[in-house]
Structures are given as C-alpha cells and as structure tokens.
C-alpha cells in the first residue's frame, strides 16, 4: 500500500512563516508527514483538522507540542515523539480518537488540560506509569499531569 504524504523542507517552512498552520490545516489527502530534523517547532493548530493524517514522527529538536497542534486528526494512530519532549499543550491531541498507544519520553514534565480529550481508546505510557481510557477512566477528564522527578503529582 503506497503512502500519500508530504515532506516539507526548512526553506518551505521559512516561506510559510505564520501561514504554515493554515496551509497544513487545510490538507485533505495527507496520511503521513516527514518533517526535516532541522525543524525546531510546529505552530499552534498546525495540523488541526487533518482528518486523513495517520502517522507523524516529530523531529528531535522539538521540546513542546503547542496547543491544538493535532486537534481533530481523527485518523491519527501513530505519533513518534522526540526524546527531548518536555510539554504537551492544551487540546494538542483532542479528538484523535484513533490513537490507541502513546509512549511519552521519560523527560516529559507537563501534559496540558484536555491534551487527549476524547481519545477514548488510548493507553498512555509515561515511564513507569500507564493510564488507560475507558468508560470508568476516560482520559477526557485529564485536567493536567505534571511530573516531578518522574512522579505524578
């Protein structure tokens, strides 16, 4: 099965400037995306509404996923997180109902309010912690997770 995707080089990112979020958010046939390792941040709502997006590997230089970055990516099923990830913004993966397993790097310190709202089939792993969504324990009630010295608080 051939993948439909797009690769964006640094020059294109610079040309898009603040329009990167709008341009990507209007995607229709995007199933996977390969961003170059030089990318240091992905704008707020950059992939919001990309209903066909299924896979993305987030470049290693990214330490924060901004609010609503992947909101409403209902077919998103795999995200490769960078080892240096520290924060996930509010509603970053809201309504990503196809996400089933997420492994966050050990250094992740903060997960924003509603970051995984309505991800009803999700198992979220953070170091030794495993949080599972379901009827009795929905991640939709996740207000905020802060890790200090690898401990939930």
What do these coordinates show?
Residues 1-22 and 137-144 have low confidence and may be disordered. The protein has helices at residues 10-16, 20-25; strands spanning 5-7, 32-34, 55-57, 64-65, 78-80, 87-88, 101-104, 110-111, 123-126, 129-132, 145-148, 151-152. Helices cover 8% and strands 24% of the residues. It has a five-stranded mixed β-sheet with strand order 4-6-8-11-12, with no helix packed on it. A four-stranded parallel β-sheet has the order 1-2-3-5, with no helix packed on it. Strands 7-9-10 form a three-stranded mixed β-sheet, with no helix packed on it. With 153 residues, it is mainly beta.
Please describe the structure with a list of short key phrases separated by commas or semicolons.
153 residues; mainly beta; 5-stranded mixed β-sheet; 4-stranded parallel β-sheet; 2 helices; 12 strands; disordered N terminus
């Amino acid at each position: 099965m051939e993948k439909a995707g797009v690769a964006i080089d640094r020059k294109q990112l610079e040309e898009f400037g603040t329009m990167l979020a709008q341009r990507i958010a209007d995607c229709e046939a995007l199933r996977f995306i390969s961003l170059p390792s030089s990318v240091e941040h992905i704008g707020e709502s950059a992939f919001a509404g990309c209903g066909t997006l299924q896979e993305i590997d987030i470049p290693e230089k990214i330490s924060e996923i901004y609010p609503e970055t992947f909101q409403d990516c209902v077919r998103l099923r795999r995200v490769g997180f960078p080892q240096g990830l520290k924060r996930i913004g509010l509603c970053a993966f809201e309504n990503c109902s196809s996400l089933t397993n997420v492994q966050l790097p050990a250094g992740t310190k903060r997960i924003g309010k509603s970051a995984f709202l309505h991800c009803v089939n999700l198992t979220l792993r953070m170091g030794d912690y495993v949080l599972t969504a379901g009827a009795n324990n929905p991640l939709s009630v996740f207000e905020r997770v802060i890790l200090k010295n690898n401990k939930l608080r």
